[in-house]
Design a protein that fits this description.
This protein is mostly helical. It contains 17 helices and no strands. The longest helix has 22 residues.
Length: 338
């Protein structure tokens, strides 16, 4: 350790060259390399990327080995990604050109495709091959390097690309895997949203195909996840489906769970309108009036644009004034419900 300490003191100009003259040259080179490398990492943490770049390339060109280069250049690229995307791309491309086959080259390919995807304002105009390659690189990172920090982002991108491409089956699958593995991820809320919207869309798609079996199968499989992700939207969609099949008890349960779990304010008036309709179907006028009074007092935005509101308003007002009820009934007849 005394030898290493002397080399460090020489590096920071605390001792003269004479002090290290008798030391092994390979030891001096090795220690100088480590100093430049560690100082480069320190500069990255400080945000001084120009200094980090200088130290890393001194390490690579003078003291390091060819095999050690991709690791430090990748660290530099990742640091630049947050500040200067074009410079980051240059370093990623450098790694791919000179060190293809390394894990850093795989990570760099993923980054370049990720940047291209994120920069595209209209995802539908992106070539399918670009999206397929991005998912392929992300999947490879997930399977080969699950312990690496970038694996979390790769997993997230798989869910995002499938969701934005309206491949809700694959988006749901990817989201479920992500939620199991990355419970403390800062991306968890976004993934929960992707999951919730994906499963709700799958319910709608299979309802349109009259595939009630798959709807109920997904409901049973994902019931615990609805609770975990507070996916009121999925229960609302299920409630709508069961309501349309005249399965009113099942629909009531789903709408009540939707209300209890819901984290979207705009969904609350829709849920209450459906519960009001079910109260009418059940001839429970007291419950109907309670729900409708609450709706009117709450003054939800856009409530008066919903045709179900006119339908319920016609009945509500008709209990007191038949003429007033007729007015709202005419609005229903001129709406999408007629």
């Amino acid at each position: 350790l005394k030898k290493e300490a002397k080399i460090l003191l020489y590096f920071i100009k605390e001792v003269s060259a004479e002090e290290i003259k008798g030391l092994d040259k390979n030891l001096i080179i090795k220690n100088f390399g480590e100093i430049y490398k560690l100082r480069g990492i320190y500069f990255i943490k400080k945000g001084e990327l120009k200094k980090a770049k200088d130290d890393f390339f001194t390490f690579i060109n003078v003291y390091g080995t060819y095999k050690e280069a991709p690791e430090v250049i990748y660290q530099l690229a990742e640091a630049y990604l947050k500040k200067d995307e074009e410079k980051a791309k240059t370093f990623y491309e450098l790694i791919i050109t000179n060190w293809d086959g390394t894990k850093e080259a795989l990570f760099s390919k993923f980054r370049l495709y990720q940047i291209a995807y994120e920069k595209s304002l209209i995802k539908e105009l992106l070539p399918e091959k670009t999206k397929e390659d991005l998912i392929s690189f992300a999947t490879l990172i997930k399977s080969k390097y699950p312990e690496e920090k970038i694996a979390e982002e790769a997993s997230f991108m798989i869910v995002k690309v499938f969701f934005e491409g309206k491949n809700y089956f694959s988006a749901r699958k990817g989201a479920i895997e992500f939620l199991k593995i990355y419970e403390r991820s800062p991306l968890i809320d976004v993934v929960k949203t992707y999951y919730c919207k994906s499963v709700s869309s799958l319910f709608e798609e299979n309802y349109e195909k009259k595939n009630l079996f798959l709807v109920t199968k997904l409901e049973v499989e994902d019931k615990d996840l609805f609770e975990k992700t507070k996916c009121g939207e999925a229960y609302y969609t299920l409630g709508d489906i069961y309501f349309n099949y005249n399965l009113y008890t099942k629909a009531s349960y789903c709408f009540i769970r939707a209300y209890e779990l819901n984290n979207r304010k705009e969904l609350i008036p829709k849920i209450l309108l459906k519960l009001g309709l079910l109260a009418l179907e059940d001839k429970n006028l007291d419950l109907f009036n309670d729900i409708f009074n609450f709706l009117n007092k709450s003054k939800y935005k856009d409530l008066t644009k919903d045709p179900y509101y006119f339908y319920l308003m016609a009945f509500y007002e008709g209990q007191k004034n038949l003429g007033s009820g007729d007015y709202y009934l005419n609005l229903v007849l001129n709406s999408t419900l007629s």
